[in-house]
């Protein structure tokens, strides 16, 4: 007999059975371990129990029972055995719980042979081991927790977390089975039945999740541990998710960095750039950058080497950059395009420039015009430093006269393609006619395509030759009206005022024919006439050509800009605006502009600064381009020299024997002066010596010019440009000669003297004495050495011991050397005169014969000149 099982109450304590029962044979009871460790899967258990319970031996309708009904049937077997005398059902449930389903015949046989016991109410229950149900409940609870992670157990009526084993199916009179709550000590009331009968965690609808967990269990041990360990708290889960997120972000950053590394970084390069600046732009060390360039194939590279933008772009691509050669022309200011219909624009005063030789009365003519202007306006004298002024003519026409400060400004304007003046009045003196500077002014006016009016001045003089002046002008290409041309000729006198009204009329007539007009609105444009530093700041005279200039406007001229602080006319009166054709003095410049620069108005300060910065960059690029050209020239010269050395040839004298070259470096104030100086110097020379200009540019002498001149043995010509003290000191240290002049004729004279110094000296041989040999005798020197001495009689001149000597025999020179001894009797003498006799011993010669002649001579070297 097995011990009587102890029943579990609702509070989890054991309770004694109301009556003892006889247990079934030992073979009919399976241990909890056998039930739960069966080889059959949970699906097989469910199907077996469902098939057995759905047969319903009591004759009721088959009913599908889920995992939740298993707990009810288990409690029914535990408490009542065969419900209403049905032993077969109890035996089937017991065998199903053991995981060993059998056929129906086997089940009935086992059920008939099992021992039974009768309870107080007449029911029969199955007998099991004492701890079977306690261990089964523990196993079921553990299995439920493992299958539904995070889900709580259904609570019992007393609030304790325990498996629902108090529910047992009951059989109604019609044979249908219903579940009911069964408690050992207190039955569950009907009003809590629905609450206790919750959805079981073992119902069929939970199968997909169970199957899914089975599939996921095939993952790695680490992943399975993360999914199955339900004791992980929320913080651990968050840490794991955060770790995965950080790892993903790190991988993403690496990918982005790799993409950015592979992507070329854009870089903007100028048209010309030095190696040092390129290394800085590419963020490379200069010394390592030079090594890299040599590895790329560049030779003789220094930090100051200038390269083109295309070459720099190819180098930058080697460092992973996307280069773009930036010309930046859109940053500069440009004048407005000319209107299509100029006739619709308002008229402006014509600009008249008076040019000519300074000794031909140009200043006197201007003074007369100023006096007439001041007298008509009835105010005091005007400033002489102003280079432009407006004159109200007697006919009511306003004319702007321009006194350009020398030819340099006008030439600079012409080089920029600007017609700053509308009419040129060429002043020619009647007593001096056409001079070289007159022709130069005529050349400038013709090049600028400006109409000319010839004013023959000083006609009041007695020696005036008006017809000769006209003939000279016609001979130089001026088509005057008297000779069938269209150039007006007016005879005037700036001193007496003779012919001045005719000159005014000619100017007005020509201006009406030209019909000069300009826009009065829009951005202002003009030209710098002159500039100077005054007590109140930097000022520049601006001739407005288009638009209207007002105080507060931003203007740009050359490489500087200004915010117009004040506008003043030639009388010093401040103006509110300057219309086209008006010369005004502008104050407010950051730096002093150069004469001849174009003035353009900017919309704002930022645009003005941008334009100036661009022009400075362009100037730097131009200097770099010059240096680049010089480098290329030096490389070509070096390569040519190496080729000549390899071929065994000489320098330039190989192709032109006997020709020497003198190198020059030319610096002048403007480009026109540079051209004039170069042309004058290159005209010098002959078949023995010639000049060669290696460098020529406008501007001051630089340190590079000194170094280049020292290396190439050049002479620097500085024309009309001041020399800095440090440049002079450096030239003295380098022993470089500088020809500094303001007059081109002086430059030509000094250059001619330098070339003359290269000419070979003029050598002449002058005979100083002649003597005839009348006797030859031999004297004994020390050590039995004998020497022949020529006894001579001086026939012409004098014989000097220091003179060179020739020995002639029958008119042919047999010896040319020097005198060793000169004696009179036995006394050494320095000179013997005509008619005297003496003994002459020559150095290295003693083969004298009677009647030979001895001549003494002197070599005279004289410097030649071109």
Automatic annotation (TrEMBL):
Major localization class: mitochondrion
Chain spans, region Disordered: 1-251, 326-345, 623-656
Pfam families cross-referenced by the UniProt entry: EF-G_D2 (PF22042), GTP_EFTU (PF00009), IF-2 (PF11987), IF2_N (PF04760)
Biased composition (Polar residues): 1-12, 26-42, 157-166
Signal peptide, first to last residue: none
Keyword GTP-binding: yes
All copies of domain Tr-type G, residue ranges: 347-515
Compartments, as annotated in UniProt: Mitochondrion
GO cellular component entries: mitochondrion
Keywords on record: GTP-binding, Initiation factor, Mitochondrion, Nucleotide-binding, Protein biosynthesis, Transit peptide
Residue ranges with Basic and acidic residues bias: 146-155, 329-339, 631-647
MF (Gene Ontology): GTP binding; GTPase activity; translation initiation factor activity
Top-level taxon in the UniProt lineage: Eukaryota
Protein's UniProt keywords contain Transit peptide: yes
Membrane spanning residue stretches: none
InterPro entries (UniProt xref): EF-G-like_DII, IF2_II, IF2_N, P-loop_NTPase, Small_GTP-bd, T_Tr_GTP-bd_dom, TF_IF2_bacterial-like, TIF_IF2
Bias type Low complexity, positions: 13-25, 109-119
Family statement: Belongs to the TRAFAC class translation factor GTPase superfamily. Classic translation factor GTPase family. IF-2 subfamily.
Described function: One of the essential components for the initiation of protein synthesis. Protects formylmethionyl-tRNA from spontaneous hydrolysis and promotes its binding to the 30S ribosomal subunits. Also involved in the hydrolysis of GTP during the formation of the 70S ribosomal complex.
Protein name according to UniProt: Translation initiation factor IF-2, mitochondrial
Organism per entry: Metarhizium album (strain ARSEF 1941)
